[in-house]
Amino acid sequence: MSTQKKASEPYCGFEQGPIRPPSEASSLLIRVTRNCPWNRCTFCPVYKGAQFSLRPVEHVKQDIDAVHRSVEMIRETADESGRIRRAEIRSAAQNTEKLDSQAFNAALNWFAGGMRSIFIQDANSLIIKPSDLVEILAHLKNRFPWVERITSYARSHTITRIKDDYLKAMMDAGLNRIHIGLESGSDQVLKMTRKGVTKEIHIKAGLKVKKAGMELSEYIMPGLGGRKYSEVHALETADVLNQIDPEFIRLRTLAIPPGMELYEDMESGRFEKCTDLMMAKETLLLIESLDGITSVVKSDHILNLFENVEGKLPEDKKRMLEIIRTFLEMKPERQSLYQLGRRLGFFANLGDMESPRRLAKAEKTSKQLGITPENVDEVIDELMRRFI
Ligand code: SF4
Description:
46% of the residues lie in helices and 11% in strands. The protein contains 15 helices and 10 strands. It has an 8-stranded mixed sheet with strand order 1-4-5-6-7-8-9-10. A two-stranded antiparallel ribbon has the order 2-3. Helix 4 links the parallel strand 4 and strand 5. The two termini are 31 Å apart.
């Protein structure tokens, strides 16, 4: 466990890290560590080349205080219904020397989003000393007592090394949801992509989070096993999820940007990427295999093929499977059209193909790009890289 640094480095103002889960779009982002302490997953571009470091607790508290000052000022400027005029606020902010502009912008966005949740950054905040995290959480609660949810990313490996009492103390201090990048339940896939965990560790970590009373959000990555491990990836991932029964299962389809190790593996032929059709079959097998759990499946990532393959288990399982089966039973030309339209944002789901306007747009672009069932995945790969 890493001990948070003493404030020997100077405080340089409010900081924010590069990413947060899609479901934390309205959350205030509070950076406790910088980058990823593992940073070896072959499919992950986010923190490559960036060194991991801890931020001194005092600096994190200064960030929190800076946001608090801005929130107070914004509240004073808002009218009775809570409406704020940005121009007025900005001019007030310019006249207030004490405000940190980055913290002010974060506060403004947070205020507009309802100020209900906070996300602790970066990739694995639970790696810091538990008492330091509890101190930061207590400060957050003290400054923003109305907040309903405080969440963080954490690696399964890190969670298994934290004593249950400490996890419970974090929960009691307000940390009530953990996002884990499970990616796969297959040991072969985890090893191949250097995730640094095993199936057993994933299960143990998930159960520990639940035991502490926190909500658990598990991210899984369709396509991560490639063609070789597609089936085992689906079956083993479902097995892990069945043993944990997390509150949320979130789908985030694999994409492989250049520069990644997995990209090199793909170029050299060591990794054969699944086509969209294969990934649809894999997702079908995964959802078919989810059994005896009550998780909510979410498809809240632009890279996913179907935005509406989501719902509560077990009652929505049949509907989710029907959507994928409908796609798999379509003619190849129509499948390609859907794939392209989805990636370009013309379609969010199969029902959107019934809109003549949307369909015409997809058909026109398909013609322009010379899309066929044979080349559609190649063209789409190029398009997907722009969303990573
Ligand atoms: S642990 Fe998470 S953030 Fe770190 S390299 Fe792996 S996927 Fe990326």
